[in-house]
Amino acid sequence: MKAIYKSQFYALFQSQQERCFYIDFGQKTVRASFCQLLALRQKVLSIEIEDHFDSDLNQHGFELLQLCNKEHLFILNTHEVLDLKQLIQNGFVQLGISSTEEILMA
Amino acid sequence: MKDIARQGMSIKVESMDMLNIQIKMEAHASATYLAMASWCDQNGFFTSAKFFHKQAEEEREHMMKIFNFLIDAGGSPISPEITNINHDYASIVDVFESTLDHEIAVTKSIHAIVLKSREVGDIATERFLDWFVMEQVEEENTIRDILDMISVTGTEGVGLQMIDDHVGNWIE
């Protein structure tokens, strides 16, 4: 298994043999197909982080994240959401299907 | 290392994101034209109502074209959520002027995606959008012609009725 990108809390791996990806969430590792990885990207990048700083829009500063056809459920705080966004953005750059040049430091 | 991600998708994720925004824009245009059809129908402009019904269908076809392209490219198309559809117009002229503004906004958005896909070397997306670029020239031209016709006919007396009748010339 090859490490694609590691952020502060999370890590993205690619398995050539299984033709899939693994995301290490710390307490749990999640297996994801490419389509599921795309769905995760969509969910994570569409989280409005500004809402975490407005108690009317997000009272407790948490996000519920369902992954891989509702197989997994995560509750993330603001720091974890920011870190996951970083993992996704930089992971896709490393995978060669994102053209974003800037790679944030992990 | 095997390029599993590239094997899964033929376009860049940035293009996919912009095309998903375009899907939403086309869906919004379709819903807006349906609202215009409703306004026209309620205000006695029955031919214009038919015209906008047809426009609404066309915009939905555009949306589906992009949606299916994303599926073919291995991407993840998002079914759009549409809100804030205006149903209030001051006059039939207002309706067509709003239509032209809407088409110009769509054109600008498509051009932005073409330029971005060119910048990131996403040739497939750039070529796919060729059809949309030319379609927008046609769409804008149709509405400009109708506004010219309204300007020549005038809105006094039976002008409004004549305008509505003439709109039928642009229903294919």
TrEMBL record, chain A:
The organism's place on the tree of life at top rank: Bacteria
This protein's name: STAS domain-containing protein
Taxonomic lineage: Bacteria, Pseudomonadati, Bacteroidota, Flavobacteriia, Flavobacteriales
UniProtKB/TrEMBL annotation, chain B:
Major site of localization recorded for this protein: cytoplasm
Top-rank lineage group of the source organism: Bacteria
Cross-referenced CDD domains: Nonheme_Ferritin
Keyword Heme: no
A Pfam family assignment: Ferritin
N-terminal signal peptide: none
Entry protein name: Ferritin
Organism (species): Flagellimonas spongiicola
